[in-house]
Design brief:
This protein is of the alpha+beta class. It has 5 helices and 7 strands.
């Protein structure tokens, strides 16, 4: 599997921001641990949530789309299952180091500011990494990654926002996954537009949960094992 699969977490970031002034890009492949080479990996999947543009347009036909994406744009959740907590801990360290070192390369223009903070009381241990980019006096973005080790699971949650008041979304979603997410049985059903269920999909916040702040699922991806071609 290509290490660029983590770019799925930033799918909406790329699509949404090309409509006006793009301020971020996906990390280089060299910055992402190849999932299929992680020791003890059993399963991995991701889900991306975005603004419910269809409902917004139905309610307000003359909606200014640029204004929509000047708020909370998207969040994504990646869940990785390992055979034991030791291998999960090693993967957590790899993801954290790779994402923190790769954040400056995700900015386009402006002056990127990167910060890293340990988070208490989420899983076994957790880290927040944040990229703040200002490209003009009027436009800036915050891209947050929260990496969590929770026993033999690792969660990587992202959130993209263009308003400072929405900072903390990634932390809130990561806390939901750690506290409420659970393995949902061996019979997993894959639905690519965000409706998968069973297995590790049980860790994903469901549509309508208040933690999502109105965002809806749009893309599911199986990251490991690779789907049969």
């Amino acid at each position: 599997m290509s290490p660029t699969h983590l770019a799925t977490l930033l799918l909406t970031l790329v699509v949404s921001l090309t409509a006006f002034s793009a301020t971020a890009q996906t990390p280089p492949a060299s910055a992402i641990p190849p999932i299929d080479q992680l020791t003890g990996i059993q399963a991995a999947a991701s889900r991306t949530y975005v603004q419910d543009v269809e409902s917004l347009l139905a309610a307000t036909p003359d909606l200014d789309m640029e204004e929509v994406f000047r708020g909370l744009v998207s969040t994504s959740v990646m869940v990785l299952e390992f055979d034991n907590a030791g291998n999960a801990a090693t993967a957590y360290d790899e993801f954290t180091a790779s994402i923190v070192s790769g954040l400056p390369m995700m900015a386009q223009g402006g002056t990127p500011e990167v910060s890293r903070t340990d988070i208490a009381e989420i899983g076994t241990r957790a880290t927040l990494a944040r990229l703040h980019t200002r490209t003009s006096d009027e436009y800036e973005t915050w891209l947050e990654f929260v990496m969590v080790q929770d026993d033999r699971y690792v969660y990587v949650v992202t959130a993209l926002t263009a308003v400072e008041a929405e900072l903390g979304m990634a932390t809130n979603v990561a806390a939901w996954v750690a506290m409420n997410g659970e393995y949902a049985g061996d019979e997993a059903i894959f639905v690519g537009d965000g409706g998968s269920s069973g297995g590790i999909w049980g860790f994903m916040p469901p549509t309508g949960d208040e933690t999502l702040e109105g965002l809806i699922p749009v893309v599911d991806e199986i990251l490991y094992p690779a789907p049969a071609s």
